[in-house]
Predict the structure.
Amino acid sequence: MIEIYTDGGSRGNPGPAAYGFIVKSQGQTIHKQNGYIGIATNNTAEYTAVLEALKWLTEKFKNENLKFFMDSQLVVSQMSGLYKVKNNNIRDLLFKIRELESNFTSVSLTHIPREENMEADRQVNLALDNHGA
């Protein structure tokens, strides 16, 4: 089981935005990544974090079981099908995510408190700080 902690954020909504994710195997961090995505909403940044994590994982851990942890209740609910996605940009990101999910045996999503997602949050802030946002 590969564990992935994702986060996205914007300074302003919309505003300068970034994503971050942490990949763990057997409790050990094996990869950290972040990126600046320009002016976007917080939700776009959250979905971009999942998408970018899946892109990286497809190269390294195809056919594995993945467990995502994120502090956005909205994203977990939308990706789980509990809430509809009405925004076209988010819908496009979700479609790309669904395509990549097919590369894995299973993908689960778990909502966690923000305090348990500080490593991924730190990655978001690093990307924003590095771009003077």
Notes: The CA atoms of residues 47 and 93 lie 7 Å apart.
